[in-house]
Amino acid sequence: MGFHAFTAAVFALSLSLILRGSALAHEKFDDQFNVVWSSSNNILAYDDSKEVELSLTKAGGANFQSSDYFLYGSFSVKLKLIHGESAGTVTAFYLTSFGENHDEIDFEFLGNETGEPYTLHTNLFVNGTGGREQRIKLWFDPTTDFHTYTIIWNHFQILWLVDYIPIRFYRNLEDIYPGSYPHLRPMVVSACLFDASAWATQDGTKPVKWQYAPFVVKYKNFAFEACEVQRDGSTPCDHNYRANWWEGLYYQKLDEERRDQVMWVVSKWKIYDYCYDNKRYPRAPLEPLECNYNVPWVW
Ligand SMILES: *[C@@H]1O[C@H](CO)[C@@H](O)[C@H](O)[C@H]1NC(C)=O
Ligand SMILES: *[C@@H]1O[C@H](CO)[C@@H](O)[C@H](O)[C@H]1NC(C)=O
């Protein structure tokens, strides 16, 4: 008990119930998810409610989030990004808490002009402070098929994985650098699609081309196995319980194989890393301090 897992089908069914309005008035919206914002019909469940699509039109995009909060766990989704023209758009899948001192773990997919590659941007906010961006190119076209994107967040590190390959890790150095690791605040799981013409593509020089709207992103196979935290703060799951699989040895520290995978991504696919940005961090890569530890050759 307290071990939380659910599937896209449940979620999609719930959404379709809202979208069909009161046709099934006796059916309650499963309180797993809330539509945070959506213009007109910009969130749609289909294919027997197994898939959900978000669209972006001139009227706006869409955002939904889980109504449950989680403290540590594994969060996975399959995504198929906007095919063709996608400049100026951002698709996101992320964990977040709220308020001035919020924590947030992000996957953001920055669109591009037709034929140009998407960028995968990852970031982390702790206690309200972000600025820990990393960007990579993907080794496949993320617009033609579904691919799996996973965040594993445990007491030891955060892992971002693409098709189960770790592309980035961030260690828990809270003992030596207090305020550098999200360890206190439960987070919701959220997803959105929005217009980010001002910054997303080629430094904001390529805004959304509305003649190609609607821009459509598909999500399926949500799989969250995580410690749920009730709204009254109680936790049916003990997040300190080291037998939760996401806390296991395999997820505490990268083994050699996965260290090689991160090395491969860093050397072949990485296009930006805040740890090497001297314009923003004059003492990089020695500062920010965590940069000394979040490199695959320091284990
Ligand atoms: C979090 O941020 C607040 C200011 O917004 C600061 O007072 C507090 O010390 C920070 N906590 C940590 C652990 O750094
Ligand atoms: C878009 O394509 C250009 C040209 O290939 C590339 O430089 C850029 O990194 C791509 N991604 C974004 C988000 O601008």
Automatic annotation (TrEMBL):
InterPro entries in alphabetical order: Beta-glucanase-like, Beta-glucanase/XTH, Beta_glucanase, ConA-like_dom_sf, GH16_AS, XET_C, XTH
Keywords: Apoplast, Cell wall, Cell wall biogenesis/degradation, Disulfide bond, Glycoprotein, Glycosidase, Hydrolase, Secreted, Signal, Transferase
Keyword S-adenosyl-L-methionine among UniProt keywords: no
Subcellular location per the Swiss-Prot or TrEMBL entry: Secreted, Cell wall; Secreted, Extracellular space, Apoplast
Source organism superkingdom: Eukaryota
Signal peptide extent: 1-25
Domain GH16: 8-219
Gene3D superfamilies in the cross-refs: 2.60.120.200
Gene Ontology process terms (BP): cell wall biogenesis; cell wall organization; xyloglucan metabolic process
Root EC class: transferase
Keyword Phosphoprotein: no
Active site residues of this protein: E104 (nucleophile), E108 (proton donor)
EC number: 2.4.1.207
Glycosylated sites: N112
Changes after translation: Contains at least one intrachain disulfide bond essential for its enzymatic activity.
GO molecular function, one term: hydrolase activity, hydrolyzing O-glycosyl compounds
GO cellular component: apoplast
Biological role: Catalyzes xyloglucan endohydrolysis (XEH) and/or endotransglycosylation (XET). Cleaves and religates xyloglucan polymers, an essential constituent of the primary cell wall, and thereby participates in cell wall construction of growing tissues.
Family membership: Belongs to the glycosyl hydrolase 16 family.
Protein name, entry field: Xyloglucan endotransglucosylase/hydrolase
